[in-house]
Amino acid sequence: MRNLLSFRHGVHPPECKDLTAALPTRRMPFPDEVVLPLGQSLGKPARPIVKEGDRVERGDKVAEADGFVSVPVHASASGTVSGVELRPHPDGTVTPAVCIAVAPHSAQVPRPRMVPEWETLEPEGIVRAVQEAGVVGLGGAAFPTHVKLSPPKDARIETLIINGCECEPYLTTDHRTMVDFPERVQLGIRIMMRCLGVDRTIIGIERNKPDAIEVIRATLPDDLDVEVVPLTVKYPQGAEKMLIKAVVDREVPSGKLPLNVGVLVQNVASVATIAEVFETGLPLIERIITVTGRGVRRPANLIVPVGTKLRDLIAACGGLTEDAREVINGGPMMGAAQGDLDTPVLKGTTGIVVLTEKECKSRQTYACIRCGHCLDACPVFLDPQILGTLARARRYDEMVPHHLWDCMVCGCCSYVCPSNIPLSQLFQLSRAALRKAEAS
Amino acid sequence: MSRPSLLVTASPHFAPRDTTPRIMWTVVVSLVPVIVASAWFFGPSALLVTLAATAGALLPERLFGNRGALGDGSAAITGILLGLTLPPGLPLWMAFLGGVFGIAFGKLIFGGLGQNVFNPALLGRAFLQAAFPVALTTWPTVGGDWWSLRGDNFALPLMTAKLDAATGATPLGLFKFEGIRPEFADLLLGSTSGSVGETSAFVILICGAYLALKNYLNWRIPVSILATTALLTGVVRLFGGDKYPDPHFMLCSGGLMLGAVYMATDMVTSPTTHRGCWIFGFGIGFLVVVIRIWGGLAEGVMYAILLMNALVPFINRVTRPKVFGSRTEVASP
């Protein structure tokens, strides 16, 4: 019975994971420059504490947290600070970033342990250490992990769900994390359970990763209540609400958090990072990134210093092919196309997918024919057809009663639309317009 | 690695499998067997009438529609479907006029593709039925020389057509007004009097199944229409006795198959929700039975669909899905 658990609606895009699924992670050489934007999490941007000409070692803090919902930024390579400058950010804006000219021929030896041992710490101490190490969710949204680890006092969390779905096509970051570092996943779960006081953990993994399911099952700790649940392969199985529905069959109420149904969800790579931080004593300065797609000569799963520019990252994978046309930060369903290869990799960057001319979708759109396929795809049961019509007429206020704010911007509606109407983008724009109107 | 420009588009970055023109042209292709079947029974007249109606539909779309609107194939579908609802012996200028009216007043004045409330092909037919009631109810018999025309197809506009071809009544007309019941096999295969495409229920069902498998039509609509019609007829016959038609006769006669499979499933003028499709189909089935059994007309599919078309926005509103997480759930203590 449990084997069939999933959620209703959703789509089945081509998986395209076989390009990198079997490739073990390897380290890429240090680039000549790293660019560390101050805003790398959903929280407040960090405050820089270095200036031009400062010499930094690998792991040194270069910007400190600004308040509780904010995380510091650390140097991902030793070298000289060339300034705090405006640089392109993957979200398309230009934001202040600490730029470090990496010391050539440096051994890149980090300073001795900067993060305390976790066994001796109380939960509050763990939360502080995690914040100081600059840990954020690595699943893409980059929510500060320490905030998740300190839920409000009156909330009671019964179940910790570890998200190993990785439902985005092409990406194999979480997959390789589970296969190559199962002990870290296990240690991370242990630390989180201690911190949250939770007795029960469930790991949800899509069935298209049988090796990950097997490895994780084999290394499960015996003294903890941890269960691996294989899930149906469907997009967006990895969306928080969909995963909770599939695993514990509870619906997070509209507009509420997983906490309201007694659940906390953490991405598997983030869990491994918590363990890594305590294990190595180094803050979050590198992460696993899948560089893939038919537009890259040698697709790979790389351990990449945060702040590496896409140009260097792609060069480490043999460069772009002749017909490469679109470079996407993230997966093809929700990722953002990049116009500039000087944008850096962030803590929350899951992968870089390069599509060829042939794979890129046509920009030709047609009139909505009210086929209803978008209603059939929407995993949160919205009416994208009505919402799209209202958005195109700029009647943003009328979209709110149609549950505009419940949209996860997963892109299922745009994906199935035969008229190629950019529905989820329209919804994002509508929200931005509403926020702007509210602010003024 | 310095290349001219990278493409920046909104996510998702995958190309969709189905495009609107592909859906439309697939529907056109799926109509080919229906056209062939009609040509088998009604000879060149069937092809001529369908061609004239299609030409009539394409003309206003080309003149007043958006640039390149012909390429999406929707006007071609309207024209072919209209042609299939007309008697094979109809003067071609009438078929042409019906196509023009269907597209111009059924679609373009609403704002083109996706904006119309009523099925344009049926609107075209309703116009013809109102304007030329006699011509629209003159049915040639099946059989005879294949090459002969089944009526005065080449009559000049506004001239009285010569009625020298053999004419007969449709099975529905025969039953309603004379109480004669044709053979079931004839109905299923289509060797009865009737309009160009309303004859072969069997071929239409096969083509519809193909479209349903490709998800180019919502199977719930035809299933709901046919089930409602069969059930209601069965109930009426059970209590009313033999003077009422039996369910299989109702299903395979007249334009019900063509209407249920091709007309009612027009994406633009049918509900967007699955529950809505069931209701929509039930409404059509109910109206068909009421009109055919108690109404003054022998056939009611056209009006049943047009009436339910008008209700689609309302059906969509009442069947809109409930948003995820809106069912009240007990939050954990």
* Largest sheet composition of chain A: 6 strands, mixed
How much of the sequence lies in strands of chain A comes to: 15-25%
Tell me the count of domains of chain B: 1
Q: Assembly state here?
A: heterodimer
- SSE pattern of chain B: HHHHHEEHHHHHHHH
CATH class wording of chain B: Mainly Alpha
Widest sheet, order of strands of chain B: 1-2
Classify the helix fraction of chain B into a percent range. 40-55%
Using the 3D structure, state the CATH architecture of chain B: Orthogonal Bundle
Report the CATH superfamily of the domain at 2-21 and 114-280 in chain A: NADH-ubiquinone oxidoreductase 51kDa subunit
Order of helices and strands of chain A: EEEEEEEEHHEHHEHEHEHEEHEEEHHHH
Structural class of chain B: mainly alpha
Helix content of chain A: 25-40%
CATH topology annotation of the domain at 2-21 and 114-280 in chain A: Rossmann fold
- What's the level 1 CATH class of the domain at 2-21 and 114-280 in chain A? Alpha Beta
Unreliable parts of chain B: 329-333
Level-2 CATH architecture of the domain at 2-21 and 114-280 in chain A: 3-Layer(aba) Sandwich
Most strands sheet of chain B: 2 strands, antiparallel
Give the largest interface: A-B, 74 and 49 residues
Strand content of chain B: under 5%
Q: What is the distance, rounded to the nearest whole angstrom, between the alpha carbons of the first and last residues of chain B? A: 57 Å
List the helices and strands and how they pair.
The complex is a heterodimer of chains A (440) and B (333).
Chain A: E1 26-27, E2 33-37, E3 47-48, E4 55-56, E5 61-64, E6 73-74, E7 79-88, E8 94-102, H1 123-132, H2 145-149, E9 159-164, H3 173-180, H4 182-196, E10 200-206, H5 210-218, E11 225-231, H6 240-248, E12 263-267, H7 268-280, E13 286-292, E14 300-305, H8 310-315, E15 324-329, E16 336-338, E17 351-356, H9 373-377, H10 384-392, H11 412-416, H12 423-439
Parallel strand pairs in A: 1-14, 9-10, 9-12, 10-11, 13-17
Antiparallel strand pairs in A: 2-8, 3-5, 4-7, 5-6, 7-8, 13-14, 15-16, 15-17
Helix pairs in contact in A: 1-4, 3-5, 4-7, 10-12
Chain B: H1 20-42, H2 44-64, H3 74-84, H4 92-106, H5 120-131, E1 139-140, E2 167-168, H6 171-178, H7 184-189, H8 201-213, H9 220-240, H10 247-252, H11 256-263, H12 274-294, H13 301-318
Antiparallel strand pairs in B: 1-2
Helix pairs in contact in B: 1-2, 1-3, 1-8, 2-3, 2-4, 3-4, 3-5, 4-5, 5-13, 8-11, 9-11, 9-12, 12-13
